[in-house]
Amino acid sequence: MPPTVPLDLWFQVPVDRPNWNMAYSLAIAGLGFVMTVIIGHPIVALLRAKKIGKQVRIDGPQHHLVKTGTPTMGGIMVTLSAVILTFAFNLYGRLSMLLPLGVLLCCGVLGAIDDRLSLVGGKRAAGLTARFKMAWLLLFATVTAIILYRPLGLGYIILPFFGRYDLSPLLYLPIAIIGIAGMANAVNLADGLDALAGGTAAVAFVAYGIIAYVQGQVGVVTFCFTMVGALLGFLWHNAHPAQVIMGDTGALAIGAALATAGFMTGQWILLPVVGLVFVAEVLSVIAQVAYFKRTGGRRLFKTAPIHHHFELIGWSETQVTLRFWLVGMMAGLFGVALALL
């Protein structure tokens, strides 16, 4: 088994009751679920009263047009629960938890601005430009990568079968920056069907929570399961037909926080495995654009991201979501299996 991360107060608190630690983290997850379900009701009501409604793509499946006006920015409830519970139960002696929390907040604010500008009837229905959002995501990711490398001292990689290897900043920093910003965009692309992004993200956080538990990283375990509880609570309101949509407010923040947790375990090489569904969403868009340009207008998929392709070939929205969940679960199990080698 690869060596565990050194103990220090910036990263974790040494403990001698690992089972109690997991029980504690699972209890926080349950609390996060209940809190998010409860606060979700007034948040949905407020979003509806303020007419913060989703603008649906006209080039997507036509049956999705009925979702136009559904309250968006629902990711607020996930972030709010995670922030409150982390400050209350997962910050004392674990100051490193400020890092994923900061990522969650910064990316959430960026996503909220984009959502606010892309409301139905808004002056800028398209929201922020892709380049503008990416520039800010890269900035947030750069700051995060630097903190991961120093002062947290996590500039290494743990490879299944081979163990831990320290990396130079010239190699580690670009990988961390691309990984964090890339995962934020990947989860954002998956946020196209009711409960799709939330469910698959919850599975991915479970996987990294288990990986962190094996390593003895109490703070990361608790943060991951806090996110699981908050995401499952969000799904209470996002289940088909959704009362509220996550929006960039949630998707960008959740994706970046997931990647940050992965880098904090040193098992970031497994992010494409644990987040297989998100990677598939990104690759489908890249492949579609490249094929379109190369063939002068022909399409590789009926549309992209790929979850809409499956809808257009006859799968119902619920079938797509559940089958993607199943793929995500199997990918998560495989990722944990590799981490144990």
Walkthrough of the structure:
The protein has 341 residues and is mainly alpha-helical. It contains 12 helices and 2 strands; from the N terminus they run ααααββαααααααα. It has one domain. It has a two-stranded antiparallel ribbon. Helix 2 packs antiparallel against helix 3, helix 6 (196-215) packs parallel to helix 8 (247-265) and helix 7 packs antiparallel against helix 8 (247-265).
Keywords:
2 strands; 2% strand; two-stranded antiparallel ribbon; mainly alpha; 65% helix; 341 residues
- Widest sheet: strand ordering: 1-2
Number of helical elements: 12
The figure for the number of domains is: 1
Q: Radius of gyration, Cα only, in angstroms?
A: 19 Å
Low-confidence stretches: 1-15
Strand content: under 5%
Main sheet overview: 2 strands, antiparallel
- The strand count comes to 2
The average pLDDT score comes to 91
**Helix and strand run:** HHHHEEHHHHHHHH
**End-to-end CA span:** 6 Å
Estimated structural class: mainly alpha
The rough form would be described as globular
**Which percent bin holds the helix content?**
55-70%
SSE topology:
Blueprint: H1 18-49, H2 75-89, H3 98-117, H4 130-149, E1 156-159, E2 163-166, H5 169-190, H6 196-215, H7 218-238, H8 247-265, H9 271-274, H10 276-294, H11 306-312, H12 317-339
Antiparallel strand pairs: 1-2
Helix pairs in contact: 1-2, 1-7, 2-3, 2-7, 2-8, 3-4, 3-8, 4-5, 5-8, 5-10, 6-7, 6-8, 6-12, 7-8
